[in-house]
Predict the structure.
Amino acid sequence: MKKTAARSKEATHERIVDAAARAIRRSGYHGTGVADIMKEAGLTHGGFYAHFASRDAMLAEAADHAGSEAVALMERVAAAVPAQDALPAMIRAYLSETHAKAIETGCATAALASEMPRQAPEVRRAATRRIKEMIDLVARHSPEWGQSGAHEQALVAVSTMVGALVLARAVDDPRLSDALRDAAQRHLTHAE
């Protein structure tokens, strides 16, 4: 009976974290309340502290979960193509119109970066860990992998990808949004 209860609590915890990960990307950290997350997870507000010590603890897990989803998506994209095509495929997927419109399920860094400096250290730490993972993933798939400068090129690539996505989501002009994403993609993949 204890194993069943533990599995049930773990499943409930994951449901809350998943709801919180979507909520922070959709509404930002400050626009995400415990009561709303618990309701979205199909639970009452009163059960929150059975799963988390604080709101910041939940936000840290949500940031980690959202970041892990972005990294996992890029890993799946890379695995689906020949090794030499992995980086361009990741860049195309990241800068796609579909990803730009998927705020609630897309890259947490692009959705939340401007709020990060005002978050608790545990939230920032979780987000930082996932940003480093994304940089490392891009570096590992770079043609320059193993050479000096590969890490710096990955830093530039990830910065460009995230910045382009942030701007593409920010503007209310669909043509400008497309142009921002397309220009970044061409620059990073050296496509004409």
